[in-house]
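re: that chain from earlier
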Amino acid sequence: MITKLHDRGVRATHLHAASLGSIGLCVNLWLRAKTIDQDERGNAERRALFVGLWPPMFWLIGDALERREGRRSILRR
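^ sequence. v structure.
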């Protein structure tokens, strides 16, 4: 999977940025969940928690891509 992402032009910095962006999205969804009525609040909070699971995944995939990019630059020398 990492090879396919790298071949399609996805870089580690893209995934690290997506990780930071999903943290912002999670906080935004959580704050918005606090402003709606009690009937819909549970679903909105679950949505925020679900999005909150994304940052570590994006960051770890970005780290794997970063290691792969580093290996490629060493092999090209």
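The chain has four helices and no strands.
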